[in-house]
Write a structure and sequence with these properties.
Keywords: Membrane, Phosphoprotein, Transmembrane, Transmembrane helix
Enzyme class: transferase
Structural class: alpha+beta
InterPro entries: HATPase_C_sf (IPR036890), HATPase_dom (IPR003594), His_kinase_dom (IPR005467), HisK_dim/P_dom (IPR003661), HisK_dim/P_sf (IPR036097), Sig_transdc_His_kin-like_C (IPR004358)
Helix content: 55-70%
Distance between the termini: 54 Å
Strand content: 15-25%
Number of strands: 13
Largest sheet: 7 strands, mixed
EC number: 2.7.13.3
Pfam families: 6TM_PilS, HATPase_c, HisKA
Order of helices and strands: HHHHHHHEEHEHHEEEHHEHEEHEEHHEE
Number of domains: 4
Length: 530
């Protein structure tokens, strides 16, 4: 469509050229100021042919503006009229020696640019034949002084060369235009692809110029900086004051390490500053700020370490279980001996208890190997938690009278691995019930869940047991730390690791109204109840 529009515009310009040329000749003839040798042999033929050419050119504007018929047919018709009119001008001006025939070169060149191909050679041949016919006419009617076959042949050769060159150049121009158009499409597609990739990146990208104007940013950067509604270009100070302060500090100090840690009290970000030498300006330099969530990076690093630790502990646990199984089996055989004294029988019971304790520790350690295999699902907590509690009551039936589940006013869909959440809550509920039994009042455990923000939810497990010693709070999540003689000290540690593997948190909270509380924080999708 664009190529056709250009052809119509070119044809319109050529028609305007014809109107201007014919009108100029008519004005010269009417004023009697035509230069020699124009109209030197037959002024009437020159004048009337110019007038007819002017009228035809003006009339051709109507089909041209309505674009009917096809532009090629209009171009062919106008070229035939050009040849006939110019031959008439040439004959009335003294023949081929007058130089008027050179106007044919312009007409043939124009036709070759529009049509190209063999048709341009056809019109060049037709114009050459017309020139030779005019020379033969002069010979036939005794106008020998106006005959010059050598010049006519040279004009015909010029017409052919013009047609060939114009056709070749037009084809080359079309090919280059199509190539440039295709390259433009490719470049546009690559630009859109690059923009889409940048926008989909989880790493934040902020491009600032020498005046600290934010030129480009992606969704991840806006998410990390909390600048969701800022429109670019905008000064860095107004886009993110914290980022502006750290960038100015970087410019002043120019550290060898181009990575800075930004802590705004809520999130920790790792900022990397990249100087863009390819976009150097006269009065400064552009910079690219690459932002990453430091907590997420630390979590990824921890996941890699824990994956290796899980493989190591699995190997160690396997090597421990084999001799442990042999000890347990030998102790069972020894216990069946009729010759054992009461003291020896007591010793076998101690061995059995301790082997079970070691086996439980090994099983807890093996859970670390499952931390990096997360299969998160959307869990509707109003349905999932009662089902979990029914399973918990089957394991600890004496706990059922002490537990209360308080549902929220809105449904919460938690994004969590069901097996991980089941293990976390089982540990918390078991600890809460055991702790609540130490209270002077009847044991009470309250489970409450809801949403903190639109994208974060929580599950609280309260118990009315005695408060935890402040000296022990900082060590609650340390491995092998326990306040129960029968505990392994790995329950809270593994629960916290499983929560972090699901992009959540396990927190200890002290609540004066409800007692001791452990909170599980997780990603949510808020759904209103019907």
């Amino acid at each position: 469509m664009d190529e056709m529009n250009r052809a119509w515009r070119l044809l319109l310009l050529l028609t305007l050229y014809r109107i201007f040329l014919a009108a100029g000749f008519v004005v010269l003839m009417v004023s009697g100021m035509q230069p020699m040798p124009l109209a030197s042999s037959n002024p009437d033929v020159f004048y009337y042919s110019s007038l007819a050419y002017l009228c035809i050119s003006i009339a051709s504007l109507y089909p041209l503006l309505h674009r009917r018929p096809h532009y090629l047919w209009q171009a062919y018709a106008l070229t035939l009229i050009d040849i006939l009119t110019i031959i008439a001008w040439m004959h009335s001006s003294g023949g081929v020696s007058s130089g008027v025939g050179m106007l044919l070169v312009i007409s043939i060149a124009n036709t070759s640019m529009i049509s190209a191909g063999r048709i341009s050679g056809f019109f060049a041949a037709l114009a050459s034949i017309a020139v030779l016919a005019e020379q033969m006419y002069n010979v036939a009617f005794g106008m020998g002084d106006r005959v010059n076959f050598s010049m006519a042949g040279l004009l015909g050769l010029t017409l052919f060369v013009t047609a060939i060159l114009a056709s070749v150049l037009a084809n080359r121009a079309r090919e280059n235009e199509q190539l440039a158009h295709q390259r433009g499409i490719d470049l546009k597609n690559m630009s859109k692809l690059a923009e889409m990739v940048i926008q989909k990146m989880t790493t934040g990208v902020v491009l600032i110029d020498s005046q600290r104007q934010v030129v480009l940013t992606n969704w991840a950067a806006r998410q990390l900086l909390g600048a969701h509604h800022q429109q670019t270009p905008i000064h860095l100070q107004y886009f993110s004051p914290e980022l502006n302060v750290h960038f100015l500090r970087f410019q002043r100090t120019q550290p060898k390490n181009n990575k800075l840690l930004i802590n705004n009290g809520v999130e920790s970000l790792l900022m990397q500053v990249v100087r863009l030498d390819a976009f150097q300006e006269e009065d400064g330099q552009n910079h690219l700020l690459i932002l990453e969530d430091a907590n997420a990076l630390a979590q990824q690093s921890q996941q890699i370490k824990l994956a290796a630790l899980g493989r190591l502990t699995a190997g160690i646990a396997h090597e421990v279980r084999n001799p442990l199984s042999a000890i347990s089996h030998a102790n069972a055989l020894l216990k069946e001996s009729p010759d054992l004294s009461a003291q020896d029988l007591r010793l076998t019971e101690i061995v059995e208890q301790q082997t079970r304790r070691i086996n439980r520790i090994v099983e807890d350690v093996l859970q670390l190997g499952k931390r990096d295999s997360v299969q998160a699902e959307h869990l509707r907590l109003r349905e999932w938690l009662p089902h979990f509690l029914s399973e918990f009551y089957q394991v600890v039936p004496e706990a059922e009278p002490s537990f209360t589940l308080e549902p929220p006013k809105q449904e919460i869909e938690g994004w969590f691995d069901p097996a991980h959440l089941r293990q976390i809550l089982h540990n918390l509920c078991q600890n809460a019930f055991r702790h609540a039994l130490q209270a002077q009042d009847p044991a009470s455990v309250l489970i409450r869940f809801g949403h903190l923000t639109q994208h974060r939810g929580y599950i609280d497990v309260y118990n009315n047991g005695p408060s935890i010693d402040p000296d022990h709070i900082d060590r609650l999540f340390e491995p092998f730390f326990t306040m129960s003689p029968k505990g392994t000290g790995l329950g809270l540690y593994i629960s916290r690791e499983l929560a972090q593997a699901n992009q959540g948190e396990l927190q200890y909270r002290s609540d004066q109204d409800n007692g001791t509380c452990f909170r599980v924080v997780f990603n949510t999708a808020l759904v209103k109840m019907e």
